[in-house]
Amino acid sequence: MSANVNGVVTEEWTDQDYEVEMGNGWKELGLNFVQNKMAVIGGVIIILVIATALFAPFIAPYDPYKVNLKLQFQEPSAQFLLGTDMYGRDVLSRIIYGSRISLLIGLVPTLISMVIGAIIGMIAGYYRGKIDFILMSISDMVLSFPSLLLAMVVMYTLGASLINIFIALSVIGWAQTSRVVRAQTMSLKNKEFVEASRAIGVRDIVIMFRHILPNCISQLIVLFTLNIPSSILSEASLSFLGIGAQPPASSWGLMVSNGKEYLFNAPWVTISPGIAILIVVLAFNFFGDGLRDVLDPHLKH
């Protein structure tokens, strides 16, 4: 809205003007995202997998935990679309229920590591000095180890369980986030709005969480979507090695591990969950790439 004050035309924005501008911004982001066909396909697959995990009891044709040795190693057919495993359990039903574990392990440790990494990154980038040196040295130590090897050390130390998987994947995932948030914090801490807040006596913790963190959201969203497939693959690797999810859980990695001995006699037992892992990981990667191009196009290059 324009106003004429002493012959000078000025712009006066109302709440309605801000809402309209914000709506146009989101609309433009949505249109840009839709243009990326692979990202849209990835998003559709993710929605379908989430729906499958939520409604698994209604979708699964059989009980995934029911053992029937008379039906072991049944080939894929109209009755068992993906065949049965060494215990006569329906492979399709176990994959459907396994989507719950894979999504849970993909989302929860990633979210925990993002929160930890964001807090550490803001503290290091805002205060600098010795605090920055100590925190980033720890971050470099974590990043210097192969992630799977570090997760294996944690799992062997704590024992194989679902909770310990959360801890292990959170331990190896926060360092990358802290680096990204630290760099963003360093570029924002000397901006005018931060200096103005500091000048009027606003506390550091308020500045970090009210002014700096919101400006890191786009990078965090991109990292979140791209780190989920890494967590899923790490869980599958740990379960394949026998230190992840434990029987009778229908984890996809555990299914691949249990079926590897029968790869030539009953390949569907191993190949089916392996394909499920491949599809979900690719879907999250395509979706994350699309979000990166829309929310932070500078990272694209």
Can you describe this structure?
This protein is an all-alpha fold. It has a single domain (36-42, 87-295), classed as Orthogonal Bundle (MetI-like fold), CATH 1.10.3720. The chain is built from twelve helices and two strands, in the order ββαααααααααααα. It has helices spanning 15-34, 37-54, 56-59, 91-127, 129-144, 147-158, 162-188, 192-199, 204-212, 217-240, 252-259, 268-295, and strands spanning 2-5, 8-11. It has a two-stranded antiparallel ribbon with strand order 1-2. β1 (2-5) and β2 form a beta hairpin. The chain is elongated and about 75 Å long. The model is unreliable at 1-5 and 17-22 (pLDDT under 50).
The percent of residues in helical segments reads over 70%
Q: And the CATH topology?
A: MetI-like fold
Overall domain count? 1
What's the count of strands?
A: 2
Give Rg in angstroms: 24 Å
CATH level 1 name: Mainly Alpha
Oligomer: single chain
What is the string of helix and strand elements?
EEHHHHHHHHHHHH
Strand count, sense and closure of the main sheet?
A: 2 strands, antiparallel
Domain ABC transmembrane type-1: 99-288
Protein name: Peptide/nickel transport system permease protein
GO biological process, one term: transmembrane transport
Keywords: Cell membrane, Membrane, Transmembrane, Transmembrane helix, Transport
How would you summarize this macromolecular structure in one to three sentences?
This is Peptide/nickel transport system permease protein. Helix 2 packs across helix 12, helix 4 runs antiparallel to helix 5 and helix 10 packs parallel to helix 11.
